[in-house]
Every structure is written in structure tokens, then in C-alpha cells.
What does this fold into?
Amino acid sequence: QSALTQPASVSASPGQSITISCIGTSSDVGSYNLVSWYQQHPGKAPKLMIYEGSKRPSGISNRFSASKSGNTASLTISGLQPEDEADYYCCSYAGSNTYVFGTGTKVTVL
Amino acid sequence: EVQLVQSGAEVKKPGESLKISCQGSGYTFTTYWIGWVRQMPGKGPEWMGIIYPGDSDTRYNPSFQGQVTLSADKSISTAFLQWSSLKASDTAMYYCARPGSSLSSFDFWGQGTLVTVSS
It folds into this structure.
């Protein structure tokens, strides 16, 4: 199980949009539409932002959206706000109740 | 309200054993899997394994197989992660996390248990 590949960092100004990629393989991202995305602020536990590829849990802003194409999943944050500055991780189901996380992306709001 | 409450921070020496806990409440403990996630300082989360408290069915990340043991006690709605011989490289924050019924994501997380292994 190798970690899913994410860009180390992404930055943008408030109000702009960013997209974070998450590259897996045909054994994980490519096989299941079960990618989830997590936001983690320093010293806090990860927080679920997207599940089942593109669904938002109750209470998560519609500024967060996600999609998948082949072995690559993507998270888009539109209308970037200062509170969006955090680390973001993707995670894919990999079959037989196993999972693999991404390497993580630090989002900086300039 | 679903809650996962983990045991407190631990400081141990290399070679010592350790068992940390995660108590679930606000849902039927025996009908949801509970996973464990390691996060080393400054690094991303790593999925370690998952256990179904109903029958103790367990799956491990091959990287952690043989290094840790997952268990659960239904009578006290608590899952456990244990080491028989800690190493300095086990120093990390450990989270328990509960998937939803579709198993597609970790919907609820514990607050984390910081384990420090140092001589």
C-alpha cells in the first residue's frame, strides 16, 4: 500500500479557487468511487469534508467540491477564505476494508 | 451524538508495552467498524488497521501487521491498540476513527492519543 500522491502545497488569495489532486492507482482510487477528503488544522483531529467521491456531510460548505477521473481524485475549494488554511488529505477505500491516505497538501491563504 | 473518547497521552521507554483505548458512545458500538490512524510528527495520516467490535474481525495495513494488535471489548464499548515492545519510531499521534455504514470514509474521529517513546 503506497500513499496517494498529493501536491505538498497550494496557495491562493482570498476569494480565489484552488484544486488539489490526489493520484492513486487502479487498486484504490481507480477501482472505487470511495475517495474521501479531510481538513486538518494544527493540533486538531482530521475532519471529514467529502465522502463517496463528491458528497458533502451536513454542515460542510458548498464551496468544497470533489470529483474523480481515472486514478486521480480532486478537491476544489472555491471562494477561498482564511479559515480554509489547513492541511488537506485524501483517502481511498482499497478493498477488503482497507484504506490508504494521501501525502497531504498544505493550503495557504495569501 | 457519536463520540469517540481516547485515553490520555503516554510517555514510554523503548521495549515497553502499551495499550491505548478508544471508547465509543452515541451509537451501537458493535455494529460499526473502528479504525486506527497513525500520524507521525509533521507527517500525514497512515491507516493502521480496522476492527469490527461485533465479532472482532480485524484487517491490518501490511506495514503494521505484526507490529500492533487491535482488539475490542464490547462490554465497555471500547477499542484498543496495543504494542508489545515499543520503538522510538512509534512516537506519534494515534487516532481512532469510525467509518459510516458505507465504509467509504471516516466520519467520526477521536481526539487523538500522543504516544512518546524515548529513553
In short: Chain A touches chain B at residues 1, 3, 34, 36, 38, 45-48, 50-52, 57, 87, 89, 91, 93, 96-104 (CB under 8 Å). The beta strands of chain A are 9-12, 18-23, 35-40, 47-50, 64-69, 72-77, 86-93, 99-101, 105-109. The two ends of chain A are 35 Å apart (CA to CA).
